[in-house]
Amino acid sequence: MCKGEVASAQRAAPRNDTTLVVGNTKAQLSLRGASPPKAEGATKQPPPYTTAAISGTSFSTGAEGQGSNLQISMSPERASYCTGQTPPVPPRTTGRMVPTNTSPAPKAHVISLFSGGLDSSLSVLLMLRQNVQVTAITFMTHFGCDLSDRSSCSSNPYPAAKQFGFDVKLVHLAEKFVKIVQNPTYGYGKNMNPCVDCRILMLREAKDYMDMVGADAVITGEVLGQRPFSQMRPKLHLTEREAGLKGRLLRPLSAKLLPPTIAELDGRIDREKLEAICGRGRHRQMELAKEFGLENYPSPASGCLLTDPEYSRKLRDLLQHTPHINFIDLNLLQVGRHFRLTPETKVIVGRSESDNNKLEAYAEPADWLLEVMDTGSPVTIVRGAPTPDDLEKAAAITARYCDLRTEPSVEVTLRQAKDSRTLRLEPGTPEWVESLRV
Ligand code: SF4
Asked: 108-292 has which fold?
């Protein structure tokens, strides 16, 4: 076999299939389409090499003493053709229409950015359908991509993983994500959502994992033209380049409209079995969902909390006034009504019993907690460096939201780790309270 033929065999062969070693040269061989040798044929009538032997899953021939040898190792299924042994029974697969990671000899291994939504699920299924192994990563952040949060842009990935048979890893981006929210290189979308930086960060994390486990590509559920800020063609190219994934980032739902990846070019992933979806319509996705037997998928998420105008306003205020934010500051953004008294002092008033409990739980020793006793009352937290005047204002706001708000005066209890006091005062007027609202 000349060098060119070895190279072309190498391109055509599925990975983990057959390894051919000629002297110091190693190549992959495909046996697809070749008639399997008979067991006796293989031992009694060796091919035109000087020696041949079959043992377990390896088949070797060699011209001993002539300085050359040839060794073929192969999967147990292929080896069974040569040895005459019964081929191993592949493990049972789960799911309705797709092979799973437990199918023998996957053609390739990809790492998927997986939110559990329809698009990322379909991307995974398009891979599993062509016997590509998938390891999914579900990313979480402090901004609503939290599996237990109803406003989340991620949902529980485990039911789909169990149904269709692929692995899932949960990764919390924590501080790395907070940094890009504070200072995104590619700016914000309509609200405080730094979607381009966010995609780059997630893709870089997935790439690190891909390199670590020796996978072939990263896949996403992105659809060309579906989101105006982050999924237009130039942005898709940008995120691929910035994540260091040139040629190794596959978007199965729009693949046929994008340049082929390395795995498509060398045949490990069949481009013909991928999709050419473009735009916001979901007709083709619905068809695919039906085809795959995918049911109970979540309706399209509008994004994480950073896409929410009210949340974004509170976050902007926090970033503007707090040079070193901590995770309690971020968690508090999802709780209660927020008021800004001074650049240093902020007031948060509970809207429900659940908010009140959270405010009590998040209070740090320096924070003040305010409440009107023996009546329906919010819990209020005062954070920062409040002056006596600020505490009075916070008490008037608290009184405004308690059940006694129509009374001429209300007694508010204020407590801190080492102090407590009461203030009797008139509840704030709705207009005044609203003027302090973040
Ligand atoms: S909405 Fe944007 S910023 Fe939020 S998780 Fe999705 S891509 Fe990231």
From this structure: Rossmann fold (3.40.50)
